[in-house]
Amino acid sequence: LYIFGFFSTHLCFSVLNAAKRTPLHLAAAFDYSDCAEALLQATADTKLVDARGRTALHLAAHAGSGSRHT
């Protein structure tokens, strides 16, 4: 997967947006499971919390319930 190769060599996975969300948070919140899987394989930090204290797992659980956490 080319994207995975690019991520693993060129990006920092703990970069945060204004809501303190990482790329993993965003992939989880919007149910982009392929992207989340690639980030996890590239050792994205699963313990980081956003501005509301939520991990990517919290957001994934909410996204899996049929709603989006934006």
What's the quick description here?
With 70 residues, the chain is mainly alpha-helical. The chain contains four helices and no strands. Helix 2 runs parallel beside helix 4.
Blueprint of the fold:
Blueprint (H helix, E strand, L loop, with lengths): L1 H9 L12 H7 L3 H9 L14 H9 L6
Give an overview of the whole structure:
It contains 4 helices and no strands. It has 70 residues and is mainly alpha-helical. The longest helix is centred in the first third of the chain and has 9 residues, at 2-10. The model is unreliable at 1-6 (pLDDT under 50).
> How would the global form be characterised?
globular
Q: Radius of gyration from the CA trace?
A: 11 Å
N/C terminus separation: 28 Å
Beta-strand residue fraction: under 5%
Largest sheet: none
Order of helices and strands: HHHH
Strand element count? 0
- Structural class determined from secondary elements: mainly alpha
Catalogue the unreliable spans: 1-6
Q: Work out the helicity level.
A: 40-55%
Roughly what is the average pLDDT, rounded to an integer? 79
Number of helices: 4
Please supply descriptive tags for the structure shown above.
70 residues; mainly alpha; globular; disordered N terminus
